[in-house]
Amino acid sequence: MEAISVIIPTLNEAGHVAGALRSVRRCRGVEAIVVDGGSTDGTADIAAVNGARVITRNACRATQLNAGADAANGEMFVFLHADTRLPRGYDRHVRRILSQPGTAAGAFEFRLDAHSIGLRLVELGVNFRSRCLRLPYGDQAIHVRRDVFRSVGGFPDMPIMEDFELVRRLHRRGRVVIAPVSVVTSARSWERLGVWMVTLLHQVSIGAYHAGFDPSRIARWHARLKGNRL
Question: Which residues contact 150 (CB under 8 A, 6 or more apart)?
Answer without folding.
Answer: none
